[in-house]
Automatic annotation (TrEMBL):
It comes from Ciona intestinalis (Transparent sea squirt). Pfam families: NatA_aux_su (PF12569), TPR_8 (PF13181). The keyword Nucleotide-binding does not apply. GO terms for molecular function: acetyltransferase activator activity. Residues 597-606 have a biased composition (Basic residues). Keywords: Repeat, TPR repeat. Residues 577-629 are annotated as: Disordered. InterPro entries: NatA_aux_su, TPR-like_helical_dom_sf, TPR_rpt. PANTHER family: N(ALPHA)-ACETYLTRANSFERASE 15_16, ISOFORM A, N-TERMINAL ACETYLTRANSFERASE-RELATED. This is N-alpha-acetyltransferase 15, NatA auxiliary subunit.
Length: 714
């Protein structure tokens, strides 16, 4: 620093740093005041910067920025000032600017561990992996005796696919540790086990299968997670074609968990059965050992045909209907891709119902008499079957007959709602689902389904009341669902508002969904250090890969699609303040009365916005944390979303992630074509058209044809 402090002030400055670390912000400000009140140090750069950083933590952002910039101006050669400015930028999520500040700080103090650590976290967060490797290497050179720099450098090389270096770094790290150090502490045992499994994971990704299996065998006693050890070894044996060994491993895995479908697939790939009978023997052998397991009974149905399929499915249906298992249809649903199997299941269910109605038996030859509930579940299953094959009237008739017999069975009301929805009777579907909800008010699933059906019928206020039964007290339903990131609700509301031409409300919900995904991406910041400290390295690498393609999720796709359609509409028909659709009450008002009503609504919205802002500030003051909320979401005035000069640019922001992560969907390219057409960019139109042709299905052909014609005309 160009402004060194004498011992007394230096002691006070160190106390400011300590108070900041311990979140004792009032004491920190008091010590800063003591230094700055001395005329000699009134413009001391580092103290001004630390005071600004402390004020930022108490919510006074503008004052904080002013002080930090002033401090930096007074002492441009201070690494503290640059570091503090970087922390301030980071708190505002301006990560690129923060990285620049950290690099400037390192110009004046190249070996500062805090700055290097903060810089490395931002680099991996922004996926500047090359820079991350450099920073981690610098940390490793400075602190070779600590574990974190070794692990961080290994992960950096792994992410850059430099597997050999990553493995060697971890090997060297192991040599620096005392032998059997991990045996003295239970936590260290698990951490060392995770480190070894991570090393093996790197070898597998590098394609060094022989080396990986040798590594597993060598460290068998040190690896605590025996399930992962077995799974890794089984996969490696398959790749190395050590099939006998692989068969033993996957057999033991099936015995550990007979409901895991992937184990059966791997066991089949090892045994390589030549026909259906041999394949069936695998599952029958497991079923004999675990008679209560469902998977070894249901999985053969996917490959069996003819009489063997009929015999097996008949047996499973009898067992499940006797026990009254509602998800029987769900377990058989994957078979509905093959028409022969669908026909066979339907015939068996019909025969069961006829026989149970006639003599309370599954078939006339049976000795066992079935209780009346078996007939009820058989009808329930057959109604689900009829709904699946689109025979909705027959399904509805069967459900009504069953409800006359047992009007309190919730599953029947839920199924009736589903069938009515497929028939297009959304009001009737809501009534049935509401009846189901009233029969069990403590069931959260039924409550959510009821709210979803109400939204689909444009009963948003009723849906809010229904959903509010499971929300926290004294919190508005919108705030609670936003806090819980309840995206299915927001997507459904966006669609409902869009249908009713309430474009501002629809866009608000779409932006909220987009904000949730941004928050999820931001949340990974907390894990960059935590995962290395806790040694959950395999999960950490998988998380980074997941975050990179997060916006491929269907909720984001649905919200983005709805937002793009609204923005295209707003481009074609720009919003006018008087465009809001009037209800019956409003349509009967005079212009003066209507104007008065609009003014009143605007005042209420402003009051609500002010109340929300005050509430957030109070929460923020209590926690001492900064609240990051986009301005566009603080103001509930929906007109703000519609009154924009560049709707196509806004639509493009939603489209970009879809083109990146949802390029396999026709709708992505169809929307891209529509935006490009309005912008008049012919090459982008052509690109969207060619991409759409590649992924188009039969149902997409009409839209594709329209695009071709419009492109030709353009």
């Amino acid at each position: 620093t160009s402004q060194p402090l004498p011992p007394k002030e230096k002691t006070l400055f160190n106390r400011i740093l300590k108070c900041y670390e311990q979140k004792q912000y009032k004491n920190g400000l008091k010590f800063a005041k003591q230094i700055l009140s001395n005329p000699k140090f009134a413009e001391h750069g580092e103290t001004l910067a630390m005071k600004g950083l402390t004020l930022n933590c108490t919510g006074k952002k503008e004052e904080a920025y002013e002080l930090v910039k002033r401090g930096l101006k007074n002492d441009l050669k201070s690494h503290v000032c640059w570091h503090v400015y970087g922390l301030l930028q980071r708190s505002d999520k301006k990560y690129d600017e923060a990285i620049k500040c950290y690099r400037n700080a390192l110009r004046w103090d190249k070996e500062n561990l805090h700055i290097l650590r903060d810089l490395s976290m931002l680099q991996v967060h922004m996926r500047d992996i090359e820079g991350y490797r450099e920073t981690r290497h610098a940390l490793l050179q400075l602190k070779p005796g600590q574990r974190a720099p070794w692990i961080g450098y290994a992960i950096a090389n792994h992410l850059l696919k430099d597997y050999t270096v990553a493995f060697k770094v971890l090997e060297e790290f192991g040599k620096t540790q005392q032998n059997d150090y991990y045996l003295f502490d239970e936590e260290m045992v698990y951490e060392h086990s995770e480190l070894l499994l991570y090393q093996n994971y790197i070898l597998q990704e590098a394609g060094l299968f022989q080396q990986a299996i040798e590594h597993l065998e060598t460290n068998k006693e040190k690896i605590v997670d025996k399930l992962s050890w077995l799974e890794y070894k089984g996969d490696l044996c398959v790749k190395l074609e050590r099939l006998e060994e692989a068969e033993k491993i996957f057999t033991s895995l099936v015995n550990r968990n007979p409901e895991n479908h992937s184990y059966y697939q791997k066991l089949e790939s090892v045994i390589k059965p030549s026909n259906e009978v041999e394949r069936l023997q695998i599952y029958d052998a497991v079923s004999a050992i675990f008679p209560k397991a469902d998977s070894p009974k249901s999985l053969p149905l996917t490959f069996l045909t003819g009489p063997m399929f009929q015999e097996r499915v008949d047996k499973i249906m009898r067992e499940q209907l006797k026990r009254g298992v509602p998800p029987l249809f769900v377990s058989l649903k994957p078979l509905y891709k093959e028409q022969e199997k669908v026909k066979c299941i339907g015939e068996i269910a019909e025969q069961f119902i006829r026989s149970l109605e006639a003599n309370s038996k599954f078939s006339p030859d049976d000795e066992e008499i079935e209780p009346p509930t078996t007939l009820l579940w058989a009808r329930f299953f057959y109604a689900q079957h009829l709904d699946k094959i689109k025979e909705y009237e027959k399904a509805l008739q069967l459900i009504n007959e069953s409800l006359e017999h047992t009007p309190t069975l919730i599953e029947l009301h839920v199924l009736k709602a589903k069938v009515l929805k497929h028939l297009g009777d959304t009001a009737g579907a809501v009534a049935s689902m509401d009846e189901a909800q009233s029969l069990d008010t403590a069931d959260r699933f039924i409550n959510c389904k009821c709210a979803a059906y109400m939204i689909r019928n444009d009963m948003i206020s009723d849906a809010e009341e229904t959903a509010a039964k499971f929300t926290r007290e004294n919190v508005s339903i919108d705030e609670y669902l936003k806090e819980m990131q309840c995206m299915w609700y927001e997507v459904a509301c966006a669609s409902a508002h869009s249908r009713a031409n309430r474009y501002g409300e629809a866009l608000k919900k779409c932006h909220e969904v987009d904000k949730h995904f941004t928050e999820i991406i931001e949340d990974q910041f907390d894990f960059h250090q935590y995962c290395m400290r806790k040694m959950t390295l395999r999960s950490y690498v998988k998380m980074l890969k997941l975050e990179d393609s997060l916006r491929s999720h269907r909720f984001y796709f649905q919200a983005a699609k709805a937002a793009i359609k609204v923005y295209i509409h707003l481009h074609d028909e720009p919003y006018q303040p008087g465009d809001r659709i009037q209800d019956e009450k409003e349509s009967s008002m005079s212009n003066a009365e209507l104007k008065k009503l609009r003014n009143k609504q605007r005042r209420q919205e402003r009051k609500k916005a002010a109340a929300e802002e005050r509430k957030k500030n109070e929460q923020h003051d209590k926690s001492g944390k900064k609240n990051h909320t986009d301005t566009i979401l603080i103001n509930p005035s929906f007109c703000n979303f519609c009154q924009i000069s560049n709707p196509l640019e806004q639509a493009q922001k939603f489209l970009a992630p879809l083109e990146l992560y949802c390029s396999g969907k026709f709708e992505t390219h169809y929307l891209a074509f529509q935006i490009a057409e309005r912008r008049g960019t012919l090459l982008v139109m052509l690109r969207a058209l060619l991409r759409a042709q590649k992924v188009a299905k039969e149902s997409d052909m009409p839209n594709l044809h329209v695009c071709r014609v419009r492109f030709a005309k353009k």
